[in-house]
TrEMBL record:
Transmembrane segments: none annotated. This is Carbohydrate kinase family protein. One of its GO terms (cellular component) is cytosol. Keywords: Kinase, Transferase.
Length: 330
């Protein structure tokens, strides 16, 4: 039987998104003009974006939430969008993870994050997954404390998990968290790469991994260095595709194929409401292209369309569109 569908696992949280007039100097007040609650984290953002594409894929979530109102909200959202939540467990040992997200008028966001229950998600949560699904996506490395622990055989527990998923026939995908100056990028990422089919990260994360500057002196994308970082990641073991994206475009590369830069269609600053979840929306579109065995460039163009739609709303989900609507914008 042909495998079909996507499992997304890892960080589940609730974003409390606030639009602010300006970022204040230390000790001063800034006015909040609008607030809303939305789901956040790689699994929820990817799955709900795919659900809103109306492509009919089976979708399953794996994660851990608290016994609290934010946990109730996460489960209700999964129910609303018909995502299998059988492997979303609850705990009384920690609250549901959450972020307070401050979005300034330019669309830039600043996160204040409480890790909560995500710190406790461990290997036992992944027993008995539906083997008829095709892609297993994990995010975000560096924010999953139990899975980020060392493993004598695989280097890290997340590497062990990804190896197990590949052994079970899943195509595997990974996303990282953007964390400047975190010395754990190479120790935690490198062991995972030989067990990955797809790696989709932004230029900030690629820069932390590679040590190369990803922006030029005039703040444009340093495409040559982005290409070098992608080549390094492939050489370190990624099996099928590496994509490094930034607002101006994305570099995609696969083993045995020349990499290429796929520019995005930029929005004006006035059009951008918020960038929360835009990277996850990009990832959702890209994974759909991979699921359907689309060429690399076509998959990236769909990913750009998903990210662009996400930028038009303050939270990670409201901007998501149907596949038909997205294809008209590719």
């Amino acid at each position: 039987m042909e495998r079909k569908g996507v499992i997304a696992a890892g960080n589940m949280l609730v974003d409390h998104v606030h639009q602010i007039v300006q970022w204040p100097e230390r000790g001063w007040l800034a006015e909040i003009t609008h607030s809303e609650r939305s789901t956040g984290g790689a699994p929820l953002n990817v799955l709900l974006t795919l659900a809103k594409m109306h492509v009919g894929l089976p979708l399953q979530a794996v994660g851990l939430v608290g016994e609290d109102s934010d946990g109730d909200y996460v489960l209700a959202m999964l129910e609303q969008y018909h995502v299998n939540r059988q492997h979303v467990q609850r705990t009384t040992s920690a609250p549901t993870s959450m972020s307070q997200v401050m979005t300034d008028p330019s669309g830039q966001r600043t996160f204040f994050h409480s890790p909560g229950a995500n710190r406790l998600l461990d290997l036992s949560a992944f027993d008995g997954l539906n083997g008829s699904l095709k892609i297993f996506h994990l995010g975000y490395l560096l924010l999953l404390d139990s899975l980020d622990k060392a493993d004598d055989e695989f280097g890290t527990r997340s590497a062990r998990l990804l190896a197990q998923m590949r052994e079970q026939g899943f195509e595997t995908s990974l996303d990282l968290v953007s964390r400047k100056g975190d010395p754990r990028y190479q120790p935690l990422v490198l062991p995972c790469l030989p067990h990955l089919d797809y790696l989709v990260i932004n230029e900030l994360e690629a820069g932390e991994f590679s040590g190369l500057p990803m922006r030029t002196a005039d703040d444009g994308p340093h495409i040559d260095n982005i290409a070098l970082a992608a080549a390094k990641l492939l050489a370190a073991g990624v099996k099928q595709r590496v994509v490094i994206h930034c607002p101006e475009g994305a570099w995609g590369e696969a083993p045995g194929e020349a990499g290429s830069w796929v520019p995005s269609r930029m929005l004006s600053q006035a059009e951008i409401i918020g960038s929360v979840g835009a990277g996850d929306a990009f990832c959702a579109g890209f994974l759909y292209g991979c699921h359907e065995s689309w060429p690399l460039q076509k998959s990236i163009l769909l990913a750009h369309a998903c990210a662009r739609a996400s930028l038009l709303c303050a939270n990670a989900i409201d901007g998501a569109k149907t596949l038909d609507a997205l294809l008209q914008e590719c």
